[in-house]
Amino acid sequence: MLYLSSVVLVAVWTSLFCFTPVQGSCPAGWEHHDESCYEFVTKEQTWINAEVDCIRHGARLAKIQSDDENEFLREYLSNNSRQYNGYDMWLGAKKRSDGGWGWGDGSTLADDDYDDWQTGNPDNPDLGVCLEFESGFNNHWNDDFCDELNYYICQRPFHPLTPPPPPTELIG
Ligand SMILES: [Ca+2]
Ligand SMILES: [Ca+2]
User: Fold this and answer.
1) Could you say which ligand is closest to the alpha carbon of residue 123?
2) CA 112 to CA 8: how far, in whole Å?
3) What angle do CA 57, 155, 76 make, to 5 degrees?
4) Where do the H-state alpha helices sit in 18-151?
5) Overall number of domains in the chain
6) 79: CA distance to ligand 1 center in Å?
7) How far is the CA of 117 from the centre of ligand 2 (A)?
8) What is the pLDDT along the chain (172 residues), one digit of tens a residue?
9) How far is the CA of 141 from the centre of ligand 1 (A)?
10) Which of 22, 28, 110, 169 is the most exposed, having the fewest neighbouring CB atoms within 10 Å of its CB?
11) Gap from CA of 88 to ligand 2 centroid (Å)
């Protein structure tokens, strides 16, 4: 009887955690893509206040590192154009004093060897400019003054559910 229930337990554990796709979670209202959860926030904030709001939610302004990631975000905006059309969206990079562009974690755009600047951009000679999806550029990248009020995209890690240890104490 003990043996039988052990077999059943192992079978249930195996079917839950070995033969189903990895399960995980994003907070309610966040979108899952790849290893991240994204929140498309419809509040108008300066860049720094947007970043602070993301941090408050365990996130940062989105750091885009690939065409796949960029296109996922642009497609979401275009599929939900009723909410987002006409609004620029802050992303997580800011011009540094040396003229390069850095993400909030200290890495640079150059590190990822990826960008999606609208042709001719960045073209703002000033400091105090930040990275946005510019709706007027079909959501390609633009540099704009960080104290403009924009919507924004937060990003946090997607946490897969960790399977519990198998019920070994019941085996044998
Ligand atoms: Ca520009
Ligand atoms: Ca703008």
Assistant:
1) 1
2) 48
3) 120
4) 47-56, 67-79, 81-84, 109-112
5) 1
6) 25
7) 13
8) 555 555 555 444 444 444 444 567 899 999 999 999 999 999 999 999 999 999 999 999 999 999 999 999 999 999 999 999 999 999 999 999 999 999 999 999 998 889 999 999 999 999 999 999 999 999 999 999 999 999 999 999 998 766 656 666 554 4
9) 8
10) 28
11) 6
Ligand closest to the CA atom of residue 124: 1
SS3 at position 54: helix
What CA–CA distance (Å, rounded) separates 70 from 63?
9
**CATH code at 112?**
3.10.100.10
Closest CA to 102 of 87, 91, 117: 91
Q: How far is the CA of 131 from the centre of ligand 1 (A)?
A: 9
The rounded Å distance from CA 38 to ligand 1 centre is 25
CA atoms of 93 and 63, how far apart (whole Å): 7
Quick one: tokens of 91?
Answer: 């992303």
Q: How far is the CA of 127 from the centre of ligand 1 (A)?
A: 12
Domain that holds residue 33: 2-170
